[in-house]
């Protein structure tokens, strides 16, 4: 947290190169969040610029109550969300099965793709299946598994309740399983 504070203070003091360092440090996180939400490289690049412009304009409001990474992630998430809303793109697929809620405590799905098929093939299938997920599920799944954010950090980024995040993770994994098992020749009882 002290590195965050030092970086924020340097940016706010207009120290040479401080904002460029902030962008370099968090551009990967920003890109992951926005790209998983909007899935359009041209829009993603433009929206990431918008994110860092907003970060620059509002950094004085950062109160160090959470890591800077979570705060910037939240800005990126909301910029992407507003973009999808403006374009009237569905952001959540609630599905028609709320019976899965009690299973949220057991988030592991037991499928080990690497053992069932080759790594390259598994990666291609997995990324194609992830791309089919609704924007919020895609983003939550990516933040949790690829960016390795905790559920609490994802809650800070998205503003969602932890139960909602767990629900999205559960539904995303369930959908991925449905997409991937037929490709792997697995039948579910």
Question: Would you write up a description of this structure?
Answer:
Helix 2 crosses helix 7. The protein has 189 residues and is mostly helical. The termini are far apart. It has helices spanning 2-12, 18-38, 41-58, 68-86, 113-116, 119-131, 135-145, 151-158, 162-184. The chain is elongated. It folds into two domains: 2-86, Rna Polymerase Sigma Factor, Chain: A, CATH 1.10.1740.10; 101-184, Arc Repressor Mutant, subunit A (Orthogonal Bundle), CATH 1.10.10. 28% of the residues are buried.
Brief sketch in words of this structure:
This protein has 189 residues and is mostly helical. The chain contains nine helices and no strands. α3 crosses α4.
The mean pLDDT is 80
CATH topology of the largest domain: Rna Polymerase Sigma Factor, Chain: A
Low-confidence stretches: 96-117
Q: Give the strand tally.
A: 0
CATH uppermost class of the largest domain:
Mainly Alpha
- In which range does the helix fraction lie? 55-70%
Number of DSSP helical runs: 9
Q: Give the CATH architecture of the largest domain.
A: Orthogonal Bundle
Q: How many separate domains make up the residues?
A: 2
The biggest beta sheet is recorded as:
none
Using the alpha-carbon principal axes, give the shape: elongated
Strand content: under 5%
Q: Report, as a whole number of angstroms, the end-to-end distance.
A: 48 Å
Pfam families: Sigma70_r2, Sigma70_r4_2
Organism: Luteibacter pinisoli
GO biological process, one term: DNA-templated transcription initiation
GO molecular function, one term: sigma factor activity
